Amino acid sequence: xxxxxxxxxxxxxxxxxxxxxxxxxxxxxxxxxxxxxxxxxxxxxxxxxxxxxxxxxxxxxxxxxxxxxxxxxxxxxxxxxxxxxxxxxxxxxxxxxxxxxxxxxxxxxxxxxxxxxxxxxxxxxxxxxxxxxxxxxxxxxxxxxx
Length: 146
Prior knowledge:
Blueprint: H1 3-6, H2 11-18, H3 22-35, H4 47-60, H5 64-71, H6 75-91, H7 100-104
């Protein structure tokens, strides 16, 4: 899968695939291309393909092997690409989430969901002497009598 194929999708399909809208994707492409050093060997994937690879890896929780087979590159290339794109996006302040103080401000409308994840006892059969069958020593054959 390459960006050329995905660019033909409608806005809703593009959002469902990548998890970001086209405008945000284009902004991300600008940030990642500006962070590119320009030295060394030319990458196999274009900047848009690298960003699409990273977004698919984040969104689908697939292994790097599966993402690599989808894009026709090696696992090592996927690992390097994800790290490089993550680093470039983290350096840009526009992609940061609001901090604790912004959340306490009250300007954001948050919905709280409470999940009960308490531990439950596992029911196991009780150990007692009736359940076990005792064996007498005389029932066990000795080595010298065999």
